Amino acid sequence: MQYITDIQSYQGKKRTAVTLGKFDGMHRGHQKLLAKIKEHTDENCESVVFTFDMGRECLMTNEERKTKLTGQADWLITCPFTEELRTMKAETFIQEILVKKLHAEYIAVGADFHFGYGTQGDVKMLAEFASEYGYKLDVIEKEKYKGKVISSTYIKEALSQGAIELANTLLGYRYGMTGVVEHGKQLGRTLGFPTMNVAPEKEKILPRFGVYACRIKVDGTWYEGIGNVGVKPTVSDEQKRLTEVFAFAYNADAYGKQTEIEFYTFERPETTFSSLEELKKHVEQDISYGKAYFRDALSDCAGSSK
Ligand SMILES: Cc1cc2nc3c(=O)[nH]c(=O)nc-3n(C[C@H](O)[C@H](O)[C@H](O)COP(=O)(O)O)c2cc1C
Ligand SMILES: Nc1ncnc2c1ncn2[C@@H]1O[C@H](COP(=O)(O)OP(=O)(O)OP(=O)(O)O)[C@@H](O)[C@H]1O
């Protein structure tokens, strides 16, 4: 997949099948659009995911979207939502970007897709220009879950409530974060639970602060664990957002290593404990909870394969 952040550097020569939007999270609705453009690709036609980088807090960083789409699309174009793009008339966007630049022969969007200055461009306008510019337009019915339309906004709401299983269902994969293991106060090991401290990107949305059964990938291997998302108010007043994971079966030095974390289930909210002893007692319970969670999850899998 070719990744560019500036439409002027697009060098594609073939016709394209394009989908457009913010694509924050690449949730199940977004994946439906991706499947549609992939259906239309062949030796003469490449798939293009065109996203707008709004520069706001997000479910997925640009780098994470790039990783997720690698092998799934021929081009990922992530355009910063500049003044030029914001004030571009919808007709100009169709003519200059979709037609002249991308040579679009197929466009797939959801029914509520809007674009162009004042968001005046919509599926009606895209349909009106279709025969003139020789592209086919597919307006995709919104993917729903239990009758409710899946959207990035819905997933953000679920995460803010700690409803991680719901968020994972709407996404179609497990929500997580990536980052490098940093040095903490090294208190954890003295308390009996060494943790990997991983700071999220500034714009990355974290689930509700609290304790989660999670997995962490270090050096290519996934480890089960229990982690705290938050600012650890018992031991720090820095307000620095971190995910701290105690991986049950990891006992090497992970400082400086790139990791990936996936959240499975919410156990309890982050708490300001009155002492380190109280904290230790609760973390011991959290560890038992996490181990039981993964043990039960594994035995459920074994049961279902019978
Ligand atoms: C499972 C787990 C649960 C935690 N829960 C809390 C909590 O509720 N409140 C809190 O202030 N810190 C919590 N922490 C963070 C600990 O305070 C922190 O890991 C410990 O002080 C070690 O910090 P260090 O890595 O800077 O040495 C939790 C950590 C883990 C691994
Ligand atoms: N549930 C869905 N099913 C199918 N297509 C969708 C769905 N949600 C969004 N789309 C389409 O995917 C593209 C990108 O959507 P976008 O990321 O802007 O929407 P969203 O997920 O609804 O986000 P937000 O909640 O921020 O409005 C658009 O063409 C949009 O219409």
From TrEMBL:
It catalyses: FMN + ATP + H(+) = FAD + diphosphate; riboflavin + ATP = FMN + ADP + H(+). It comes from Faecalicatena acetigenes. The keyword Transferase applies. Residues 170-295 form the Riboflavin kinase domain. Keywords: ATP-binding, FAD, Flavoprotein, FMN, Kinase, Multifunctional enzyme, Nucleotide-binding, Nucleotidyltransferase, Transferase. PANTHER family: RIBOFLAVIN KINASE, RIBOFLAVIN KINASE/FMN ADENYLYLTRANSFERASE. SMART domains: Flavokinase. This is Riboflavin biosynthesis protein. InterPro entries: Cyt_trans-like, FAD_synthase, Riboflavin_kinase, Riboflavin_kinase_bac, Riboflavin_kinase_bac/euk, Riboflavin_kinase_dom_sf, Rossmann-like_a/b/a_fold. Belongs to the ribF family. Pfam families: FAD_syn (PF06574), Flavokinase (PF01687). It comes from the Bacteria. Pathway: Cofactor biosynthesis; FAD biosynthesis; FAD from FMN: step 1/1; Cofactor biosynthesis; FMN biosynthesis; FMN from riboflavin (ATP route): step 1/1. It is an enzyme of class 2 (transferase). GO terms for molecular function: FMN adenylyltransferase activity; riboflavin kinase activity. Its EC number is 2.7.1.26, 2.7.7.2.
